[in-house]
Queue: 4 jobs
Job 1
Amino acid sequence: MSVAYGHVVAVHDATFSIGEGEAVAIIGPNGNGKSSILMGIAGLVARRGDVRIFGTGAPPRNVMWTARHGLTLVPERRQLYPNLSAADNIILGCYSWTRSVHKARASDAYAFALDLFPDLRPHLRQAAGTLSGGQQQMVAIARGLAAAPRILAVDEPCLGLAEVVSKRVYEALARVHSAGTTLIVVEEVPRRALEICTRRVEVRNGIAA
Amino acid sequence: MITLRPKTQARAALLSRQGSLGGTVATTGLVVVVGIAVMLLFGQQYAGSVIILAFTYAIVTAGMAVQIGFSQQIAFSQAVFMGLGAYGVALLNAHTGMSSLLAAPVVTVGSGLVALLLGSVVTRVSGLALAVATIMLPLLATGYVSSANYLGGSVGMPLTSNLWSGATPGATVVGDGIVTVAVLGIVVFAATRILSSDIGLELYVLGVDERTAAAMGVPTARRKLELFVLGSMFAGLGGAVYAGTQLFVPATLVSPTAELSLLMMLFVGGRRSILGAIVGALAIQYVSGASSWVSNNILVVEGVLITVVLLVDPEGLAGIAATLTARVRGRPAGRGVVADAVVAAEPGVPAEATAPAAGRQASDFGRTWADRAGGEDRPGAPLLECAGIDKDYGGLQVLDKVTLALPPRGIFGLCGPNGAGKSTLLGVIGGSISASGGQVLLGGADVTRMAPQQRFHLGVSRTFQAVHLIHGRSVLDNVAVSCLGAHRPGIAAGIVRSRLAEARGKAAEALDYLGMGGLSGQEVSGLTLESQRMVEFARAIAAKPRLLLLDEPTSGLSEPQRDRLKDVLRTVGEMTCVLLVEHDLTLVAQISQKIYVLATGGLVFEGTPDEFRQSEVVNSLLVGL
Amino acid sequence: MKLGNLLIAGLVTGSIYAVFAVCVAVWYRVSNILNLAVGDFAMTGALGVDYLYRVRGWPLPLSIVGTLAVVAVFGYVYDQVVLRLAQDGRRRQEGIVITFFFTFALSFFIDGVAKILFGTDVHAAPALWNGNSLTVAGNLHIERAGVLVLGCAVVSGVMFALYIRYTLSGKAMEASGENNLGARIVGIDTRRYRRIIFVITAVLAAIFGIVESPITGFTYISGATISVTGFIAAAYGGFRSPGRALLAGLVIGIAEALLGGYVSAEYADTLLYAILAALVLARPRALGFESAIGA
């Protein structure tokens, strides 16, 4: 798989596979292509080469397709809906598998997502844009989980977060993994990710190893 | 080398060339010569008055390019001022017999005065609020004019005095046209001079981000008012020329449709380019008059034309022209692998940035900075004092009785969990956020109510979490923004002289000091994140501040990049006082002499790095052990 | 009773403004584009029905359906061709240009086509509910068309509000406007929502044009004033809240009627605009605008 922005090649013929139930950390220095790999897989940016999710070829540049086929991305910088409440943000994660608010609220996925972050309880009605960075990251992950994904891909979960919050985020991710979801984490600080991940893919200069 | 988007590199080059007086004269000369040639060639025919009309609109749109193009603020006021100028000339002509030529400067000054009054109210708001407030203007004007008999009601006012009276009607038209072109030349000259001066640089930053501009000392409120007045004066002048050449002022001149047409001309031509604005006016007028089928169906044609042009390039025809010139010049080398780019494209920063501190101190820049900081010392007294700072946003208490004192030199860390209020505290110290309670003292003086610009000139400089550099301009120019000097002249001074060269000189000194001299000519959007942050850092220190506020400078940087920044900070900390908001606790502990910890708005810890590492409060809060 | 009748007249014109304001606000919420061509769609509705019914002799219901169908198809095509290129292509356009200018250009285009098709005279679609004005509660009169207008306004307002608050699809629509990337990540087809809402607002505007045209005649350039008023009313709703836009439209309509009745019929509009402008300048934040720093 290759990803290029204009003339600049960010990812150069990356080839690897991830088995179900694994937890993989994609690490490497900044600006070397880690996020681009993830975005290429998820379909946020144009790519060349093949990406297959559970055996089915994913169309390039179609993040909605991947969301509906089991891979949910929690993007860098969260990308929440600032004027909607935290609860609404999370419940929209269910959009990929239902259109009914009732079914979404009653679902296991939604309950699990809320359960993972008890700190968010008092803030559920608050507009997402007014939450602190750490709380926003929790909402973003919860939204990803509400989609009941088989693969959860997280891009830089701890960007801009204080140490203690990062720990909690990783604890949550560990729980997600032990519940059976496949994890792909892009991390700039290897130490944290490797605590919970079984495999690593190092990306240097756009080439994955 | 990282490949740059060709268009922005070309623009940057173009801008530095235009910076000179020679460049301005060349541009003006081009416009005037072409205009006169066109008039002489085609003036005698019917097309003559249409061409004049086109040039008249060009006068207005050139002014709009300055007012709207750079400030990102749409004000729907130009048609009204054009009407003011036109009706003004007609009235003076009718009641005092003053010739149009004489009346033109009179009404221009009058427009300026009205704009000053209106602008001081209107420019208090920005963005959509500004648009909504000013969209009423054409409606109000149309309503007033339609009922005003002395203005000819809903029909309009005739005139008898041409700008230029010639022996024959043909000669009159040509004469009118030449005068119009001359006026256009004056407008182009003035506008280009301003934009390529140091004031132009201020306007660019203002357009990028008002908060950053204010923090770098740009008098934002004043500039916004000046832009409004300038644009309005040019519009009034255009209106005067309109009256003197068309000999009739229709009431529709101030209608919403007219305002819309002006905006269309600007955007089709290219809102950020004076030449583009002129071309836009000419293009649309040409199309309107092209054939009778077109003029009957002008609405359809304009609708389609504008849509197509804007789809191709939001910067309009000027943007399309820039892309074509870049292509003609040939793109830089094709698909380069990022590998080489990332490793190679940080010239200046790695090697020189780790130069020994002694080498730095010895440089002029370092010496004058140290002198400045030293000279203003009150021995033993703190440089910065925050006394009981409170900040609440309608019930949400973000800062709670924060008190601290910092000496004139050293590095001090400010840490805390997210939402603790660290950036807010920096904002209160820097002036972009006003405290709800408490005091901020700088060198003993109470600055609590001072605007960020004033604090900047007193020696407070800061960086923000998100990098806000001016795209399309070089590193040197981006740094030069903070070197413009304390006493900012009015916008008109930009026509007379430009202090940009001096500012660039100072910026170059700062860049050399940081070992980034090699980057100065590069256009900023092609730089890596680390380099962009360093440019922002250079901008912050170029003014040799007494107090440097840094907001998460290492965010997004890798290990080796952080190490480099650490070295730079250590050196800088010997010269001035640095307050550093950071999440990287290791880095903070390594370089700070004292660390403050903020949690839910209040200070919960202050002490040395050793105490910090051992403190229980800190460990549970930040490290989670 | 003069006050009562003025209030009712104000409510009717107010609901016209309100509906257009809602169209502008809702669409801005979804797409971050200001649809400044709403008035022109309204004009197309009115003049289209008039043309089909009076000139071509079609039966009234067919004229209405025909006109609405044309508006819907046109809206769909415009989205597919222009908006898709502008927003979905490689270089996504944001900021001033797309917010204002594409629909400015669209309104020019529609007006031009209308001029060709319908000529330059003033026309009106036939009243849908014929008869004299109704008398309510003693001395209050209201035009039948006015009742329709009010009814449509209330119904559409309520439906929108319910849709947004209580259905997942409605929330998804909002999310599309809040953060396009964030919405796509959860599988929301933002392009489809944008298209749907554009077509719905165009058709809604056209319906309103048909319903209210017995009250005010239309000519090919009437659209601009309506669009501007819709824009202003939506602005007072902060551009995002349909509910507030609705309220703002009603208030503006009532204010206009009261000013006209009690102060001066000639300068009512002028005064109204002056007051509105002053409000925005004095208290931008209270109205939901972000104002300049230091203010």
Job 2
Amino acid sequence: MNARERVSCCMDDELSADEHMAVSRVVLDDPELSAVWARYQRVRRLLQHDTTPDVSDVAARVQQALAAEPTVFAPVAQRLQRAPRRRWQMAFAASVALLAIGLVPQWMFVEAPDQALLPPAYLNRYLSEHHAYLGASHVTQPNAGGALMAVHHVP
Amino acid sequence: MLPAAVQAQTVPLTAADWLQAMHHAVHHLDYEGRVVYQVGSELEVMHLQHQSHAAGETEYLSALSGVPYQIRRDRGVMHAPPGDDRVVQNQHILGMNCLFHYQQMAPHYRLSLGKQHRVADRLAQIVLIEPQDRLRLGRRLYLDQETKLPLRSVLLDHQQQPLAQTLFIQLTLKNTPAMSSRQHPIPMDTSSDRSAAAQRWQFAALPAGFAMQLHHYRPEKQRDHFIFSDGLSMMSLYIEPWMDGSLQGFSKQGATEILGARKYNQRLTLLGQVPQETLQQMMDAVRPVP
């Protein structure tokens, strides 16, 4: 089985957990396979609308764990009701059920009614960069007086 | 080594001691487990693995529900497959969203200890972090009694309602606190190259408590990236030439607020897990250097 076939099998949940992990790590280091992976993801999500709950033991344990302490699950929606808004969701994601497992993220354009339906691609890039620093140890080093720690030029 | 205050177990730990120990544990222990991330009505189950070694930290985050993917952060560099918005949203689980600098955050948050609780079949101490004003969000942390790892972390709005939370449902430790005395090198250039590009922007009045932590400049894109923090919350500011179709106004992804604006013919984008008011104050503070 070549690498592409293994990625395909991975997407179809035909590999064991260990094999899946191995393929995932190979994909990260191979730009070509990474592109294949992304393409398969888009196709799969379009075909399946990514709304099928993953009914596994994990799901049961999660619900059990969260049930131990009541949690409000829709604070965002409550807050947004105060202002005119437009709830945006990825085109291939259908409406979702409370507590379903494995849902796509929701984007919400609150005060940008003229925005296109798709979020600008650069926002994902920004978020990804931002998250790379969030919780990273080098950002949390003590910074006496709040002074600028460093200025980089990224080639 | 663990902080001295933590090692002296005969003295009851303060909330600040717990947070200091948490920060150390998150970055220095080897652990893995199943993690649930919840925001609004979304739930995602992931496998998190953290390895601490002489060269730094390596972390893996794999989706266990929905379409599979894996993210790796190796010594501060993120490796993630493209094309999946879930990847972008969930990346911050790496590092357990654990930014903490006590001296900087202390004036702006009230820390206290809550009850003990059980999470992932382990005994946890609740640490409450309440903001002193409306420019930042609170946290309720459930820290493992033994290791001080955050077994559960809840981001709270001003009504104390959960905005998002991260929860371990299973945790395996690979070493003990006593074994992890490694000091990680800081994987960054600290030469403080204050070039002309770095001096193009100034900030008239930052939101109270926030200070600039980092600045990157990508000359080929003419893009500045500034990171600001109050010791607990972090926000990013991106500035690059204006392009039609860019975000103007507020947006949101998960628990992360986003504000876009066109100023000085530049595209300014601010984002972070902070209230919209904080992003707006930050946006109003940006000025070009005359």
Job 3
Amino acid sequence: MAATAQEIAAAIAAGQRRAVDVLDEHLAAIGARDGELHAFNLVTTEHARADAEAVDRGERPGPLAGVPVALKDNLCTRGIPTTCSSRILEGWRPPYDATVVTRLRDAGAVLVGKTNLDEFAMGSSTENSAFGATRNPHDVTRVPGGSSGGSAAAVAAGFAPVALGSDTGGSIRQPAALCGVVGVKPTYGAVSRYGLIAFASSLDQIGPFTTTVADAALVLEVIAGHDPMDSTSIDGPAPSLLEVLDHGVDGLRVGVVRELLGEGIAPDVRARTEAAAEALAAAGAKVDEASVPAAIYGLSAYYLIAPSEASSNLARYDGVRYGLRVDAANTAEMNTATRTAGFGPEVKRRIMLGTYALSSGYYDAYYGKAQRVRTLIIRDFQAAYEQFDVLLSPTSPTTAFELGAKTADPLSMYMNDVCTIPSNLSGDPAMSVPYGAGADGLPVGVQVMAPALGEPVMFRVAAALERSLA
Amino acid sequence: MSEGMRNGWELVVGLEVHCELATQTKIFCGCRNVFGAPPNTNICPVCLGLPGSLPVLNEEAVHLAMRLGMALGCSVEPSIFHRKNYFYPDMPKDYQVSQYDQPINVDGSIELADGSVVGIERAHLEEDTGKSTHVGGGGRINEAERSLVDYNRAGVPLVEIVSRPDITSAEQAKAYVNELRAILLATGASDAKMEEGSMRVDANVSVRRRGEPLGTRCEIKNLNSVRSLVRAIEYEAERQIDVLQAGERIVQETRHWDEAGGRTRPGRSKEEAEDYRYFPEPDLVPVEPDDAWRQRVRDELPLLPAARRARLATAVPATAGVALVVERGLDELVLDAITAGGDPGRLLTHAEHNVLEAGALTAESFAALSRMEVEGALTATQAKTVLAELVLTGGDPAAIAATHGFEALDESDLASTLDAIIAENPEAFEKLKAGDGKVIGFFTGQVMKATQGKADGKRVAALLQEKAKS
Amino acid sequence: MPEITRDDVAHVARLARLSLTEEELDLFTGQLAAVLDHARDVEALDVADVAPTAHPLPLRNVLRADVPGPSLDRDEVLAAAPAVEDDRFAVPPVLGEEP
């Protein structure tokens, strides 16, 4: 078992290990296996060495000092290519760091590289990357999930104990489940989006991949908290999570969401979810069935809202100021030639879907209506949280599927997000905890959901689930 | 008035005026809001719309927008921002953050100098775009080989003021723009310089036969001065009347004012109308000024031009010169001089005709001067000379008059001088008796020569008329 | 709502500055129609008296002080630009005036 971030940080802080040695170990692991897995778009060896050396000189103290961290390649890193796994941003070096990157640096973290994703975070398998798919470390014929497949695989393969991803419809939690690692989507607004290249602004959140619940708590304590550069950032400090992990679940009310255990859920996944519910009951929780009726409309609302916001967020990729330019006789033709060459088919699909849903005559029926359905979902969650402290569901309907299995039919790919999407729409926090294996021996993840700002209770339950497997 | 206007046609004009707010920094970022800086030196990730950037609203922009709105008689409402989506190279994000159906200021009106009232539909906040220059092929947009974009202006805060279509002549349009500028300057909201682009005017023009419903309108852009505004409206009105009188229909379109050619031209054809796909800006939250903030803004409102005109009008006998005097900023001086015992009629006349700027002129000396005139110690012409010196170097009017050797001629000296001149010019006197008013000037000139300017011109004319009758 | 047509897709592609081949037009029309068809379940919902959610958070009046902050180094920005002339971003000529 690779060392956790907590173990590494403690050992370095105690002078038992050197950051450069920790780094070299991880670089060796990357070198040995990333050729096969393609978790990384870029390994930042020189930067990492400089970071680690500075830690060893005592110049970079902090809770993550010397801990190797991988970053999804849609997080801006100054002077380091940030591509969103798209040809349209190939080679682009941002002139600034994302806030989360600054916070990780300030905590002493060592950045080892930028990880692969579905292009512009649009997808559930990382097969939409313009630079080739990432493979699941548990079975290289299978997908790692998406869109943060590279980050999930990097942690699962031991390339780094911590990786950051982004979650708009499940893009942290679903790959976490498929790769057998912990993945957290915080409350909307808990982690600054400044420097996260936007997909759908009212849904996007950054969060950690780790091998343990405690590591995720540690990272979240570092990256969360108010940011004046993000108007949608919650006005308060990061939550205290490490201190609650051992509090247990005695007397907590756990609701298993009926609507998210429907017929689309594979039997082995359902079995693991039920096992998790039983484990919590055995640990003292009051477990019952919960209902969030409007959750069944989540997929539909999401596939109207997210592409609409994306169609606007991606308009700036026009060949004028940065990134790819394909020249033409006039600006409009240059925009068109650039975007046609630079975007892959899924991105184009979603841009057109979003443009349509916002267009004159259709706004009320599509985008407008979806925003109202969103309100229904929020209300149903609020009602459920009056009866329950946390909610439970599978994270993904199935274990990791084979590369190429769902690429022909976009709709079948979208179905992967049916359990994760509702909490993006509500803005409430949710996390995936690895909970055993499916019938095929592949990892299964269980999703714990909590009300807004309910990270403490969510982590308490996640920690209890983790303990129940030990 | 053009011939068309006389033949039962009415002109209907609405004006859209964009004003750059006088803030230190841009609307969503801390880049400086200054005119004339070297290209692309006041840019940052936010105003350049770099991937991952986010807007944060400038408090002063909201404050000034509220002040301007209140000065325009608007009601200040809770408001949100919307995205207006379209592609253009001077738009860094290829959408403009603006306000759509929930703007900050609605339903106001302004009273013009001539007493007419023009309704204000709304005055909302939005961000400015960058600026393109067109290179090659003579510098005109339709012959350019390439365009060069400077984003210094991108993100400067704008208030767009939309009038109701209450304007019925080009002259009234001019008066509206002048009044608006005066209000902008009085409130400090903007420096309103059309030549620097901090105030830009577009005109919506339509015509109709008296009693008929509103005609189809055309939007006229590229009006770089008030003079262009007047010429363009007059041209466009004629053009539309010609079209309608020929039995054809007006095409609703955007037209550009061609200053050199003295005509409006259709905008170059686009394949289809723009669909802006407005939706609420997800990266910003609503603005709801509380009562305390509103009161602070109200307390800061200066005395506006219309109120100053009203105030001056109640203190002086004639209203003809009031607007001009207020425009020149001399109303307070006149009012203070009246308080100091000056003659309102003389003071107003001087302020209207003989003083551009107060300079060294004080209320006390101004008052004293006017009293010397009404007491007959100075003629109007002599007073003008003294006044000019008071403005230039200050001093005491009586002392200055003495230095010049001014004293009004007494009545009997005047009569005898006049008699002498009449005796020398019998033919002219016959002409006067026959009703030829032009010879008055001749006689007056002769009297002035004979008395070294000490005669009062009006008195001479009056005496002449008496003698002509007798 | 009516089903999305090939013409609709061609229209939104133009609005979004994307050019599609004939085959792509057919393919995308079918795929988009399938997604929108799936979204028909929300069509039946009566949400007329439900307010839309633009933000999951109840934040209001998030403002910054009107104080200058650092700007970017022009050279760093222009270095990333596809074409530069006279310290400005160069683009092919624009057809049509700003809307």
Job 4
Amino acid sequence: MSPVLPIPVVQVLQVVTIAAVAPGVSGVMARVEARLQGRTGPRVLQPYSDLRKLFRKEALAPEGASWVFLAAPLAAMTCYLTVPLLIPVLTTFGLPLGYMGDILGGGFILSLASFLIAVAALETGSPYAQLGASRAKTFSAITEPVILFVVFTVALVTGTDLPYALAATVRSSAGQIVRPAHVLAAAALFMVILYETGRIPVETHSGTNEFGMIEEARPFEHSGPYFALLKWGSAMKQLILYTILINVFVAPWGLASTAQAGSVVLAIVALVAKAVALGVVVAVIDNSFAKLRLFKITEFVSAAFLLAVLGVFTLYLGGG
Amino acid sequence: MAGAAAVAAPSVFSGTANVIAVGVLLVEFGMFRQALLRGQVRLYAAQSTLISVLAVVVAAARHLPDLYVLAGLSFALKVVIVPVVLRRLLRGLGARGEGPGWTDIAGSGSLSLATTVLVAIVLAAFGFFSVAALGIHSPVLPTTALAVSVAVVLVAFVLMIMRRDVASQAIGFFSLENGVSLTALVVAAGLPLILEIVFLFDLLVAVVVFGLLIRVHHGRAESLSTADLTRLRG
């Protein structure tokens, strides 16, 4: 029998896992993407080296930018460190701080981070950063209804909107997995995640073409440790969203049901494996589709909205 | 952990039936976006495949061996023969006189895609709520699949109304028939086989008639669009 970890340690481990693994998952995805395109691609550990390099560099702020410009990366990072407390990262049972907020609460904290970064981008006075901020806010306003309908679906399925409750419901029987409401909500959430993480078909993740940029344009003016925090934060946001999709909707298996050290370690390994698998799927999608024109993004979002709304409809008749 | 207000999951049979029915509806929505005639025909074939799969599921769940025959027949007819016939009839109608493959029918919608989808969602909602208002409850009937089939029919109407090219209108009509087959499978799985087969061959006749109409229209108007048909306008 492995020793039982104290609950607060497990709680901290949830945050540490997300923070430590996130750049690695981005690295694997960049590598897979490159291989699919016939390039050798960067090393898997490249994002860590990038972060280390950036943390050593000097930080500059544009002339006239106020304290908000420098505070925003720190505040956004704080938000990204808070969300892993609310979602099932490693355990099937709710940890003490896990009931601080529901799915909506987690969503609010993530949008707060995105809002702060947008405000910092507006501070710079740089046209590209401002363009990115304005686009990001415009499109997040139209993805918001999709997220709401996904939450409605979860609420109708479980009677609550705690992520732990939905994960437990999905684990409870095979019927819960094939029910259309669940499939539709998961698919809609996946599309929102593609948007939120700036992936094709919405945005070229690694491109330098300013015209198509949304999320990627916002940290244009940041440099040094602040830029490192933003990059790290966006990798963490990606892994947080993946974790929500995997551990709440699609595959909530492999989580630790007790606080024993062995099962917690196993849960970390399982999370990494599942996140990498999802990352590979996203990388394949990245390589199989063309980027949508900016004004076609509404079509992508309307498809996600359709899925989420149908999920609620099917539940309404009791057959979802 | 689930609260008391939670909606219970359906049985595996009705869950599967509902998922397939929702798949049929989603393919119907996919037709709004499809830009190539070839792709439109392929979507129709995919939708018909889903119907055949549903027939197999219903046959297995209700122990109706007739339905296996129907599934095979409907697969042969709707997934193989109808698309082949359609492609043959539409050959040479492309802008460059090529096969139907690259005939561009995009942009024939009278509203933007996102708006069309929203309109269709509203109509689908009407279908859902009207079936709910009927208050049909039966342990063997997957109510959601029934509601979805009504929604498929309504959305097929939206496709026929919104797209201004004859090919999409014809395929909208055929997929409407798919919606009706879905209803038949869900509500009256025990329908005599001969009737089902008659319906299927009815469809084949419709395909030939529509194909000829499309050719005649193309011969007169030199395009697949119906936007030029204004001679009788007052």
